[in-house]
Amino acid sequence: PAANEFGGSIEVSGITNFIDNGGNVLVAGSPSLDDPLRNLASECGLEFDEENTNVIDHVNFDHADTGRHTRVLVPSSNIVKSPLIAGAASKKPLLYKGIGMVLDPDNSLISSIVTGSSTTYSHDASESITEYPHAVGKSTVLVAALQGFNNARVVFTGSLDMFSDEFFSSPVQRGVAGSPRFDTAANAEFVTAVSQWVFKERGVLRYSDVQHHPAGTKESPGHYTVSDNVEYSIRIEELVDGQWKPFRSDGVQLEFQCIDPYVRTPLKGNKDGVFSTTFKLPDHYGVFKFLVDFRSLGYTFLVSTSPVTVNPLTHLMYERFILCAYPYYASCFSMMVGLVIFSVVYLFHREPKSKSE
Amino acid sequence: EMASVQSLTGVVTRFWDEYSVKTPQRLQLIDCYLAYIVLTGVIQFLYCCLVGTFPFNSFLSGFISCIGSFVLAVCLRVQSNPANKDQFKGITSQRAFGDFIFAHCVLHLVAMNFLG
After folding, report:
1. pTM, to two decimals
2. ipTM exceeding cut-off 0.90 for this assembly
3. A211, A216, A248, B42: least CB-packed within 10 angstroms?
4. Where are the alpha helices (DSSP H) in chain B?
């Protein structure tokens, strides 16, 4: 972290190109952070605090702290509740000693994994505070994760010490009297889980085998007609321990879009990871697409589009005799029948004799 | 008002008596036919008011068929009335009936086409 510039031919643009091409990066900072890592962080949408600042918490500090309260014991409730990213939930706190970060609020791809408590702030521990600190309270981010649209993952943390053996194995207890004591902090498990997530060993999805056809047949015609019943299925798999296993979730949705989604329906998955549903096409013709856009914290983004055309009804598909027009049909025919009867009676009619007299 | 109601019923009964005596039976026959057409037309129109004009072409076809038949039957009645013989010189009652039938053919042809 303290390097003035990266060694050899590595530059910030080189690393961002690496990320743009799908590479994953794990970055650890420290209070003696210098420009290269700062530039990399601002490219990714977060900002480290100034040099020589630390994350300070006068309530949640470890008993082994030297007095400045920079050895912060982060309660387990401040760790994001996603087993994919942070591992199994545990009551153990996290030991952190380092610099703080703030996230860009407009960036929708970056999220905080570990934040400070409401008593945390980020400042130079040796100076008195004369202006509002850079990061205060719960918006002090200790570990942040970015997942780009190309599914490249980057994790930033401000504490290199979080990865150290000392932090892995020391017993921890809050410096306030009467706090519970833990034999170890959660560092070892947390760091292992985060590294597995960032280097795409966990939380990776892929799709295959997209099929759609009219309900009841198996063939996929070249086009559909308005108000058809259509069955759609997609197979989604998840990488678990190096193997692709069927994915299980209740949150996968299908959208049937023609600029705006006309139909949005949930997909039901079976045990083989095949998600399918049957629905009725809207009463609108045009070029539509089946869109599956699954975004969930910790998983890679899954987007699948299949364009189809939907034709209007041909002339022969309308009903031949309209039920509510039957009275009009009846009146037309009754007029003709009436005419025939009338003409027959009229022609064979003879004036009664008494009238002409 | 008793007097006006009485006079109304008086007028109707007087009209009915004169009509049944003075009108030739032929014309009474046409009048029955006319009443039948009016009834059909009114029923159709009420149905359309209730249900709406969904297959508008069917409604128009049925209604025009009624109206056309009514008009042609009235023409036949006018031409067959012996009291109007002076106005229709040269048109025998057979000619009148022939015109009536021909016009009806055209009317029903058009109505069936428009019925859908």
Report:
1. 0.70
2. no
3. A216
4. 2-22, 25-51, 56-80, 93-115
